[in-house]
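_Backbone structure tokens_
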Amino acid sequence: MADRRGGTDGQNFRELEDTQQRADHGAAKYPVGAWKQGRRFVLHRDAPLPALCLATSAPTHLRVKRTFAYVPGMVALTILLSPFIWLLVRWLVQAKIALMLPLAEEFLARERRLRIVRAAFALIGTLMFAAGIWQLLDARLPAGGLEMIFGGVLIAAATFAWSVFASTRLRVVRYEEPYIWLGGVHPDFIDKLPDWPYE
């Protein structure tokens, strides 16, 4: 399949393969390239990426800047103590990683629609919570305030969890400078990559 710059899928990976071959024959401490480790996409932050969307494996001419917040996996256990403690620790230890990624317009449009849906659910949850508080404070209103509050909190929490933990989104699952492990990359894209040789 040709992309908008006239290359085939195989040609799209040629620059990346040439870069990796030069790294393999060189003495670089941190070889530049991109690989797969299981179903994860491993890349050097300076690796040239092919003109294929990471999320759909479709040809694309777009390069989109994405900033990821990486938090070590053990931090997730603090949510058992308190969501507020988890948010605080996450904010304190997170690493910000900015990458220019090839992403197709179709994927970007789907992301925009999902953001609108999540925002709508978050708004519904907030309004239900506020309505429940109002019902509790105003004796003239019918009972049911606690149910409204519970429902609002549940919807807001589910929306937040969907945003943070959705398995289909691109996300950093491991970070060891200068290498980044990405999850959510399309299997067809992953299959075209060589195996990660350093572990």
Remarks:
- The longest strand covers residues 63-70.
- Strands lie at 34-37, 40-44, 63-70, 95-102, 171-176, 179-183.
